[in-house]
Write a structure and sequence with these properties.
Blueprint: H1 2-12, H2 22-29, E1 51-54, E2 57-59, H3 62-72, E3 79-83, H4 89-95, E4 100-105, H5 108-120, E5 126-130, E6 143-148, H6 157-161, E7 163-173, E8 179-186, E9 192-200
The structure holds S-adenosyl-L-homocysteine.
């Protein structure tokens, strides 16, 4: 039902984006969204709207998840970094599309819950850790793709540095809460190009005081 809603929305969203790729919709169809959200909101898991997952975090509405996954333009051999694990829903979708997913969540209990739930559901190529994703995951860099699922007022420099030449980042970015879903490409020679796709709403990318920045 939900994927149908996503397809319908995608078909009418021509002014902002092409149709969502079939393989993205197939990957979404396989993920049990209700098992990744907290018990209290399970009944609403298959509606096309954002859901609260505790600790002031929300999963985006499925259409935005679909659009971001589609824009990421992943290939099966890719290694992907996600900043903002939240429920683990986006990570689970990516799990079926790429080789490895590394996901960072700043709220420890969310990181713990998502990591445990993803493991219990058998998503073996996803690794979750608690930490400030602004700094990326240097030990695992470089990444073919980076997806940021919290709103940033600028593109974190460490993430740009950890993006492989020829790689792509999808990130909601803007000042004063005026976020634009943005696609950033790094050419093989390291040249950066940016494209704004759509105004969006996301919870803010927060910083740990201890991270020094
Ligand atoms: N992708 C998630 C939804 C993310 S909501 C899903 O599929 O469920 C945004 C998440 O980003 C929240 O859980 C929030 O705690 C987290 N976040 C905010 N700032 C962060 C940071 N600096 N590093 C890592 N995670 C962060």
């Amino acid at each position: 039902m939900m994927v149908l809603a996503v397809e319908n929305l995608a078909a009418t969203a021509g002014s902002t984006h092409r149709r969502i790729d079939r393989k993205v919709l197939d990957a979404m169809r396989k993920v049990p969204r209700h098992l990744l959200v907290p018990q209290e909101v399970r009944a609403e898991a298959y509606q096309n709207r954002p859901l609260p997952i505790g600790y002031e975090a929300t999963i985006s509405q499925p259409y935005i998840v679909a659009l971001m996954t589609d824009l990421l333009d992943v290939e099966p051999g890719h290694k992907v970094l996600e900043v903002g694990t939240g429920s683990g829903y986006q990570a689970a979708i990516l799990s079926g599309l790429v080789n490895r997913v590394h996901s960072i969540e700043i709220v420890e209990p969310l990181a713990k819950r998502a990591g445990e739930q993803l493991a219990a559901l058998g998503y073996r190529n996803v690794t979750v850790r608690a930490g400030d994703g602004y700094a990326g995951w240097p030990e695992q860099a470089p990444f073919d793709r980076i997806i940021v699922t919290a709103g940033a007022d600028h593109v974190p420099r460490p993430l740009m540095d950890q993006l492989r030449p020829g790689g792509r980042m999808v990130i909601p970015v803007g000042e004063g809460g005026d976020l634009q879903l943005t696609v950033i490409d790094k050419s093989r020679k390291g040249r950066i190009s940016k494209r704004r796709v759509l105004p969006v709403y996301f919870v803010p990318l927060t910083r740990k005081a201890s991270s020094g920045g």
